[in-house]
Amino acid sequence: KAGVTQTPRYLIKTRGQQVTLSCSPISGHRSVSWYQQTPGQGLQFLFEYFSETQRNKGNFPGRFSGRQFSNSRSEMNVSTLELGDSALYLCASSESAGIAGYTFGSGTRLTVV
Amino acid sequence: AQSVSQHNHHVILSEAASLELGCNYSYGGTVNLFWYVQYPGQHLQLLLKYFSGDPLVKGIKGFEAEFIKSKFSFNLRKPSVQWSDTAEYFCAVNEQRGSYIPTFGRGTSLIVHP
After folding, report:
1. Do A98 and B46 touch (CB under 8 A)?
2. What is the DSSP secondary-structure string of chain A?
3. Closest to B43 (Cβ–Cβ): which among A45, A98, A106?
4. Which DSSP string corresponds to B19-86?
5. Residue B101 Cα, gap to closest chain A Cα (Å)
6. Burial letters for B65-88: b for 16+ Cβ neighbours within 10 Å, e otherwise?
7. B37 and B87 in contact (C-beta within 8 Å)?
8. What 3-state DSSP class applies to B111?
9. pLDDT of A35-75, one tens digit each?
10. Rounded CA separation B48/B62 (Å)
């Protein structure tokens, strides 16, 4: 089984720009969750998609958004980037909303300058 | 607010030493519990999980964890660590109701000296 694939692996953006990150979950997994990982805050939950619907959302501003396609692939978008958005963004897929545990991708390292 | 605490932020051990990493949570209801590991340069991987039944759970690579409900704890143990166990370890907890979205602890960095 192929793992969770995230692209790109690295990104450098300027403040004020926007960025789109992509995640392809494990085949058959319909739940895709996104997390932001930073040294100071650990893993913070962004949102979860299931069958193209956002089912849960964390405490992040509206600049952070996402979507899921019919093939379960997911994208997250961050608009008007701020320096504090620099982080590792992790995608996790699951058969059922994390009940059985997640399979994580390698992440996208976003640096905002 | 629900929270997960990992009190040991950094642990340094010599090979063959025993390991115990603490994890406490603040949920009042029935929970699912997880330990994940992130080896240097690799993605997060599930180490073990507890849903119900025997509170002593065995995972991969010789790791085990014990769920003590009265103490709201799910500590990770290994009798004898190896250099290859050097990694970051994350405890995660979710409730068996509602959104099931797990909350992660901030992680414990383990360094094992050969």
Report:
1. no
2. ----EEE-SEEEE-TT--EEEEEE--TT--EEEEEEEETTTEEEEEEEEETTEEEEE-S--TTEEEEE-TTS-EEEEE-S--GGG-EEEEEEEESSTTSS--EE---EEEEE-
3. A106
4. EEE--EE---S-EEEEEEEE-TTS--EEEEEE-SS-SEEE-GGG-EEEEEGGGTEEEEEESS--GGG-
5. 6
6. bbbeeeebbbbbebeebeeebbbb
7. yes
8. strand
9. 999 988 889 999 999 999 999 999 999 999 999 999 999 99
10. 10
A2 and chain B in contact, CB less than 8 A: no
A107: chain B residues, CB-CB within 8 Å: 43
Q: In which residue are the tokens 């008007």 written? A: A80
Q: Which of A3, A56, A101 sits opposite B46 (nearest CB)?
A: A101
- Dist. CA A35–CA B37, nearest whole Å: 16
Answer whether B6's CB lies under 8 Å from B21's CB: yes
In one-letter notation, the amino acid at residue A54 is Q
**Tell me, what's the pLDDT at A98?**
65
Radius of gyration of chain B (CA): 14
Q: Backbone phi, then psi, for A85, in 5-degree steps? A: -85, -5
